[in-house]
Amino acid sequence: MEPDLLEFDLGRGVRAFSTGRRGGYSIGAYASFNANAYCGDDAYAVRMNRELLCRAMGLEPARLVMPHQVHGVEVCRVDEAFFRLPEEERKSVLEGVDAVMTDLPCVCVSVSTADCIPILIYDARHHAVAAVHAGWRGTLQRIPGVALQAMREAYGTKAADVRVAIGPGISLEAFEVGDEVFEAFREAGFPMQAMSRRFPVAGNAAGVPAEKWHLDLWQANRDVLVSAGVPGAQIYLSGICTYGHPERFFSARRLGIRSGRILNGIFLTE
Hints:
6-stranded mixed sheet, 14 strands, CNF1/YfiH-like putative cysteine hydrolases
């Protein structure tokens, strides 16, 4: 048994990937590869899936770092001091974190998604990586830029030097939002003409708007990265819609909140 992996080429010395649904131990709406312990899956299946992934990647299970995300912009730096903490203290450090970074070799920092946008960052010059979780709330707060700033302060990272993979997430066509979400992005200065469209509402009933806004979170996060100084040519966009491909990737809008999550990870191989 092996997990299904979508890998991204960000250069030598690094591996970056998103997991698919196949090749694990979970059942039901978590079937079959779910490594997230915070979404209601069986704890034994989660542990077995994590060990399975680590064997496939040649990693120690303790070196797979997964935060408990809250749709904020908190960034956690993982260093050797982190690994000297007792397990419960490490969990506490990772509570309320939506981006994780490290410059340690063979430490896989990761975030979980199931329609939100995963962003994997590699600084080849300073040999550092980060995994970022960008739902619409994190995107609104420009979390990719927050993570880049944290990397600059910790490792000296310059945005012009990084390579970025934007993994599977919900597409503009599938991401319907209310007017209040559209207005929040507009007021925050996002380029709405480029990242939003209105689509008819299927089965429209009396009193229901005939059209609703759809947002392109891929484009929004790409714009944040470019505005922060990352060259567009160094940003890889997978272009895979989780909602449109539920047979391979978990989608909370398809399966409900109590379902599996994609693990998006990145680690230095040396």
